[in-house]
Automatic annotation (TrEMBL):
This is JmjC domain-containing protein. The lineage of its organism: Eukaryota, Fungi, Fungi incertae sedis, Zoopagomycota, Kickxellomycotina. Gene3D superfamilies: Cupin. PROSITE patterns: JMJC. It holds the Pfam family Cupin_8. It comes from Smittium simulii. Residues 84-239 form the JmjC domain. It comes from the Eukaryota. SMART domains: JmjC.
């Protein structure tokens, strides 16, 4: 991770309980029982959060799962810590050890594990934010960057991902600095308008498909765009 380049580890998390019965996250009945049919969750309404008509609303979790199964692609449960409401879901996955590796520890060949306080003191890495991304096909996260390392775990379904180095930040046309979307590009990363955004044609990018069991590392401030190609459940681990 020290050279800040993205990479994929295939089948890195396939051993998680979330991949097999009776706790498979592919099973909507299990998800509803684990979270609670009437648990209110915040969903995004609209094709993406940069749309002018985008909004959010609270819906019962069972109703949201039913809407996905019925083919509704208008809502997205994005960047939400659902695990704090469900000990069952919390026990269905394991925070990847890579989240607790620090450059200082790599140099000394020591690895940080959250259960080992002495090693934690060595690295001092105690900040971790874990969120779920659960949505139908065509759920989109527009081209943007985050300030943290991200180990992105794909549990159910597939996502298309486009990655752009931050050395091209002056060519991706971020929203103005005074705007809350200053970490987000104004360009549609899949279908760019080169007339409106001519410099975007000069960027280099890598793209990939992440599938069940894959871990994708996204470095801090690395621009990334994601679109679900199927019903999808992912976990982001920011550290």
């Amino acid at each position: 991770m020290s050279d800040c380049q993205p990479f994929i580890i295939e089948n890195a998390i396939s051993f998680w309980p979330a991949f097999s019965e009776p706790s498979s996250w592919k099973n909507p009945t299990y998800l509803i029982s684990a979270v609670g049919k009437h648990r209110l969750v915040p969903v995004e309404v609209g094709s993406k959060y940069t749309d002018p008509n985008w909004t959010q609303k609270l819906v019962p979790f069972g109703q949201y799962i039913d809407s996905i199964q019925s083919g509704d692609e208008s809502t997205y449960l994005a960047q939400y810590n659902l695990f704090k409401h469900s000990s069952s879901l919390q026990s269905d996955f394991i925070i990847p050890d890579y989240c607790f590796v620090d450059a200082a520890c790599l140099d000394s060949q020591k690895y940080l594990n959250p259960q080992i306080d002495t090693v934690k003191q060595c690295c001092g890495n105690t900040t971790l934010s874990t969120n779920i991304w659960l949505g139908p096909a065509n759920s989109v996260s527009p081209l943007h960057y985050d300030d943290f390392h991200n180990l992105f775990a794909q549990v159910v379904g597939y996502k298309y991902v486009k990655l752009i180095s931050n050395k091209y930040s002056d060519k991706v046309y971020p929203y103005p600095g005074s705007c809350m979307l200053s970490n987000t590009s104004m360009v549609d990363a899949e279908y760019p308008n080169f007339i409106q955004f001519p410099d975007f044609k000069h960027i280099e990018f890598v793209d990939c498909i992440v599938g069940p069991g894959d871990l994708l590392y996204i470095p801090p401030r690395f621009w990334h765009y994601l679109r679900a190609t199927t019903t999808s459940i992912s976990i982001s681990n920011w550290f």
